[in-house]
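Batch manifest line 1606
LIGAND: iron/sulfur cluster
JOB: complex structure
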Amino acid sequence: MKLSVSHPPHIKQGVTVKTIMWSKIAILMAVSLMAVFVFGLSALAMILVSTISAVITEAGIQKLTKQELTIKDGDAVSIGMLIALLLPHTVPIWVPAIGAFFGVALVKHAFGGLGSTLFNPAIAAWVFMNMSWGALTKISSVSHIGSASYNILFLGKYSDVIFESGAGTLAEVSSFILVIGGVYLIYKKYIDWRIPSSFIVTTVVMALLLGEDLSYVITGMLFLGVFILATETATSPITKNGRFIYGLLCGVLTVMYGFISCNYVVAVLYAVFFANAVAPFIEKNTSPKPVDEVAL
Amino acid sequence: MDKEMGVVLLKLVVLSVVAAAVLGAVYIPTQVQLKIYQQEQKELALVDVMPLADHFDPVRSGEEILYYRALDADNNLVGYSFFHDQSGSQDMITIAGGIDTEYKVSGIKIMSHAETPGLGAKITELAFTDQFIGVAQSDLMLSKNDGAIDAITGATVSSVAVIDGIQAKILEIKANE
Amino acid sequence: MEDVSLFAIAINGIFVKNFLLVQFLGLCSFLGVSKETKSAVGMSAAVMFVMILASTAAFLIYEFLLKPFGLTFLTTISFIIIIAALVQLVEFIIRKFSPPLYRSLGIFLPLITTNCAILGVVILNVRLEYGFIESVFYGFTAGVGYTMVMLLMSSIREKCTVLRIPEAVQGIPHAFFITTLLSMAFVNFFGVIPT
Amino acid sequence: MILCVSDEMTKEEMKNNSKTPKEAEEYRQQVVIPLLQHRGAICEPLVDVEDNVLIGQKIGECDNDYAAQVHSSISGHIIAIEERPHPSCVKKPSIIIESNGTNESINFKTCTNPSKEYIFDTLQDSGIVELDGYPVFNTLISKKIIDTVMVNLTYPSDANSNCTSDNIPKIIEGMKLLMKASDAEGVIIINKTDGQLASSIRSSLNGDNIKIINTKRNYIPLMNNLLAHDMTGIRISNRDTPGYAGVMISSAYGALAVSKAVLEGIPPIEVNVTVSGAVKNPMINTVSIGTSFKDVIQSSGGYLGEPGKIIMNGILSGTAQATDEVPVIKSTTEITVQSIDEVVRDKPGPCIHCARCVDVCPVNILPGRIASFSDIGRYDECSKLHVNSCVECGLCDYVCPSSRHILQLIRFARTALIRLFNIPEEKESPNLKLGCESCETPCDTGTSSVTEGGKK
Amino acid sequence: MTGTLLIAQSAMVIGGIGFLVGIVLIWASIKFAVETNPLVDEVIEVLPGANCGACGYAGCADFAEKVVEETAPIDGCPVGGFDVVKEIGAKLGQEVKEAESIYPFVRCNGGVHCTDKIDYVGIDDCRAVMMISDGEKGCSYGCVGRGTCVRACPFGAITIGDDRLPHINKNMCKSCGICVDECPNDILVMANETETVHVLCRSNDKGKLVKSVCEFGCIGCRICAKNCPEDAITVTGFLAEIDQEKCTNCGLCVDNCPQKTIEMISTSVEAAA
Amino acid sequence: MAEKTILGEYLRGIVKDNPVLALVLGLCPALAVTTSVENAIGMSGAALFVLLGSNVMISALRKQIPPIIRIPMFIIIICTFVTIIDMVMEAYTPPLYKALGIFIPLIVVNCIIIGRAEAYAIKNNVKYSIVDAFGIGTGFLVVLVAIGAIRELLGTGAIVLFGFKLISIPIYSDTPATFMILPAGAFMTIGVLMALVNYNRIRKLKKGA
Ligand SMILES: Cc1cc2nc3c(=O)[nH]c(=O)nc-3n(C[C@H](O)[C@H](O)[C@H](O)COP(=O)(O)O)c2cc1C
Ligand SMILES: Cc1cc2nc3c(=O)[nH]c(=O)nc-3n(C[C@H](O)[C@H](O)[C@H](O)COP(=O)(O)O)c2cc1C
Ligand SMILES: Cc1cc2nc3c(=O)[nH]c(=O)nc-3n(C[C@H](O)[C@H](O)[C@H](O)COP(=O)(O)O)c2cc1C
Ligand SMILES: Cc1cc2nc3c(=O)[nH]c(=O)nc-3n(C[C@H](O)[C@H](O)[C@@H](O)CO)c2cc1C
Ligand code: SF4
Ligand code: SF4
Ligand code: SF4
Ligand code: SF4
Ligand code: FES
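JOB STATUS: finished
ARTIFACT:
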């Protein structure tokens, strides 16, 4: 009889990286379905190509450097899907393919893979694509695909917050899916509640203070940013106060960029990306005080 | 201060003096060459944007040259040409331009700029500048605003800067004449 | 000289034309010293201090010595002598009067003479034809921009000690990758305030 | 959060399955009594090989301040005094006694209304050790002024084993004795969710001046400082004890042992142990100290399938045993057997910085970050991040989605830091030499804790 | 002539600046003079700069300072080897003579031939394993084989082989001894290159116990001691020990050991394949 | 130590002591001006000129240079050459001068040049200093041209050298990844190059072991 010996605890909660990732992917799948429904097969093609490119890149790198394959953890899949979802459906199909390669190869694996990504690979890939093919990937926040046609529950111009908003990118037609999915993730504690709540509250409050029309500020991209992009674990601070401040910073930057450029869709992405850069600094300066620390 | 320090100081001063003298000696010939080159460039540009002209007559306000009246061999006025600085997306863009007597553009040339290579830097390319030839002042607008000029993709700011610069100068000349 | 508001200079110096990320000035010391926040802060303070001093001194020399005599071609040589002397002087003084400060700042001072950012800021002052206030203020804001990026970078690199960085990427290449992404994060400041 | 979850049996079922000590006796032919069952110095044996001893006879003593005498739990003769496996982690000197089957005991001196002095005297003699390893007597005589005696019933292993309806009045008796000894008020801490226990306690209190406080959290013995802090609001350094806040914390086991020792004169020779998990008849056993885990499990019907892991004192914070030969000691309250399939052997991945560990940590530190620093040998950083504040509750490890061995890495860093501070004369290399000598104190609750308690 | 004037002006301006700067700096260097020892910098330059700490000081610079202060031994840097010692000696004007080269060797033959007592789950580190129940190996004296020494070696000289024992690459080893310090079980010891016969076991357990867990463990049978013509082997408890002073590397004990515990290592450390 | 040979000293500057990849010096120009191969060649040409001049001068005057004002004297010598090349380029190659911008005067503070003065020229004779200057200069050139080529090719789809279209990628050049000629692309390129060099070095080390 050879007994197992280890340090406690001797059970695990059972929530694994895999569970968290695939739950997010499930939400992204719903978002993708909506995108295909609204934009047609070109959207489907983009999502497939981007995801496949991300997965192949990851597998290739791990094969080449003789690491263990980690496709199953879903990280590459979610990066690939997100990259497609951040683009308008008019983009040629090779753009997300190259973007996904950039995101997975340079922003994920060159930095050390899962957990070491200092910047959100999907947003970084988006910035890369935007810098390279600005004209092709241009997102505008004005062209709504018809708030008139979906006037839900007498919400008037706010109804597109629920059903579609911004209508620039694939992700933006699914505000309500993102909100439901995000709340589910928070409920299951797969993502932290502090970042989304402080992000969205700051955004709304700042926008109101500046006198912006909320129907331009609250876009589908904002919800994607709040629930999926900003809560990406490796790129946000781990301290509790740090996460509040991080959400706050995301919100402030979103409104600032949006206010100056009149484009609240792009603003969310740049805001979260810049906040990624500041996250370690926030984290460093919000070290918690343990309960047993006695003032001298 | 002892003698050793004096020697040190002397060496430093001697080196400085020699260095400065050498620089002064190089400065003079290069400066001459630079002047010649700049003049050449200017003249070339003026001719480029106003091919009909034979010589140019500067219109001044005080020391500053506002623009040139382009005259043919018989001293008839065939148009105007000018240099203009306009702020672009990064830094100043220096534009040379020529217009005929009906205030239609006869040609433009970007003299210097600091726009992003590959983006705004495309304003120097013929594909962009040739669009301007023959365009009337009223049509000097982006095509998306029903004008005659197609912006460079990804560099609207730079494109608009060039258009705006020429617009402003034409209005100035109109007002002056 | 165009009329440039101090606010525009500040935004330009800190964000739009950030010395490190956009203008590529001062990279050697940036990569060398940003491993730890402590030394990053020391270096930043030293750079900011010398930038302000150098902007002041250079303006005076340029305006009252070089320009009147038409000796503008001597700009570089006179500026670099001034900077070298200033740095040396500051080092002497700090070492004598504040050994603790010298211990934290002093080791960075020799690095500063050969830091492009300092010479860059004074030459840019001349090229942009800034007046006295603007020159000194530009020196200050360029220093602020330098400090900001330095702080972000050093916090990131400190966090990196617990990350699994591939062997071949460790060290300088990794620092470059971080800089790549930092630079991308600054990209959207382009065109916020056209100069 | 439920701290102990593995067994599906209700407490009722366990009680029905209980065996009296007599039934279990057949397995008790030999006991191994370690000479160290507390934090502090190892006891000197008072007996020699081949001596005969009686139940309750003192067989080990030490004159150190931090000491807890050990007593024989059976009558028989001593066959050896040697190093034997110990539930903490490494071998400890122990006295091995073979039963002669007579159950002869020394004369236990009963007392119905003890004076304060009598309580002190008996407690000093009885060597009762709290579940966190501190001898009760030492807590009482420490210079700190105790104004509250708290009985912590939120530690599931302890509460499950000791809070049977028979025992509850005795626990309250013991608590009152402690209150009398220290002129303090009494408080009983119960988890909010444990309504049944609260009501049975309330019915046994009949008008005593004892308060009941409900908490959200379960407190394991190592969280005593935290418990005192949560109740009083006073911050207690990890180098201090709850006494700093004027609080003495007792477990159900401790209170029970005090009442037994003072009123019935019986020193701690028996403990109540819940046997759960992959055994045939999970139940609460009353076991003589020194009985091997193997025998205890046998008396619960034996293993169900092949055992994968044997854990003392709770599945979340307990110690896994290398062998089932280890003896039951004073602070054993639960033995859990996991089948081979239940054993957690997930491969650790990289930290994904999800901060789930940060959110559950009761002492508000950054467990995952400390673990990462420990992993790369940066113990200085661990120290800066307050690694010594950790109360080893194991929650961080429990929730980590990347299956990182957070608690082990934290303990590792602490051990490294002790080495660093204990041997300053060793060269100041950034590399630290580690080994198990750091673990001089017994870790009966499964810890190689660094609190300076026993080291004078 | 403007040209000459210009040159003269330039010379005066830069000469003037140079003069002023020179005066100020010389004045400042005298006024604010602080003593430093240039020797320290010279010594730093000679040192290998690995900052490994093997010398026992906080990095190369600290060591250099201490050497100049003569509070550290001149041959205190094990990494640099004799060349460095000679150079430091030259700087400080001291004579030095070459030491014999020593390398760590692995005092355990168990590895895969030694049974596991428990199934350890946890962090992959020898020290961590030793903190639980005397380790996972049947033999509590043996090499744990989880490579703490591999990670400790600043020069990458150690690898764990298929036999789950460390192998030291003599070409890369700088004899710094860090691995010896780090090993929780004292498996690694420094040995002179000329000493080639070693007892590859350090178990003091009874022979029967050793035999039950390890194929190659020393059982204390004394056959080697009886066979040694030089009386170099003593068996205390259940473990043989070779007195290297007396040993002539004849190899008789190696041939006679029933457990194959004693081995002759041709170069004391084998180069990794 | 092995005997110094002229070839050896030259190659050392290119490979072992490569100023950018191995010594990590002179990064600013290496990144700022490498938007095209042409600029890269111009920059490294200018740097080579200054390096050569300063190495020769300093090596020739090395007996005359008092240690305490070593650095100021180096700077003055270097700066003289920099200003000369600055003026000459402004006059004779204005477009290139314009493209290189502030980085020509900044050669003064380029760590490579002072570094070589301090580490080499002050200790060695004129002959070897010339070889060293050529070696280091070539090393700088090789890296700059490599970075420039990668960035120009990927960033614009073609390499144009002095008006000639050297290489052009057919379909790609319609929509090249502009990212590459922006600052971020520069950082990325040099990062990838260095990672590859490192990878190779580590692989060799492991093999040699
Ligand atoms: C919508 C959805 C799709 C999933 N698809 C996959 C899948 O394709 N591959 C996979 O390995 N896990 C997938 N999972 C995760 C699994 O449900 C489960 O968490 C995981 O496979 C557990 O793996 P393990 O048993 O290897 O630990 C998916 C989860 C969800 C919610
Ligand atoms: C949007 C949102 C906001 C919340 N705000 C708070 C809050 O301000 N304070 C709080 O204690 N819990 C809040 N919660 C509840 C938390 O989800 C959760 O209950 C809490 O983190 C539990 O932490 P604790 O056990 O450390 O108290 C909020 C939840 C959501 C979804
Ligand atoms: C944060 C931010 C600030 C901007 N500020 C300005 C500005 O002040 N002036 C300006 O002309 N464009 C500014 N832009 C760019 C414009 O938003 C817009 O992209 C551009 O003017 C229109 O060019 P396009 O039609 O080619 O996209 C800014 C962009 C961003 C992201
Ligand atoms: C890195 C970068 C460089 C840019 N350079 C230019 C430029 O040179 N000229 C310009 O007009 N816009 C430039 N832009 C601005 C950008 O392309 C802008 O949104 C629009 O002009 C796009 O149509 C740049 C933007 C980025 C992100
Ligand atoms: S075990 Fe983990 S959660 Fe518990 S106190 Fe320690 S660090 Fe915090
Ligand atoms: S729970 Fe695990 S993965 Fe998450 S932050 Fe903590 S250690 Fe890292
Ligand atoms: S020699 Fe020591 S450190 Fe190395 S593997 Fe063996 S036990 Fe571990
Ligand atoms: S093998 Fe041991 S002695 Fe040799 S270099 Fe490595 S750590 Fe130092
Ligand atoms: S070249 Fe070294 S700092 Fe710029």
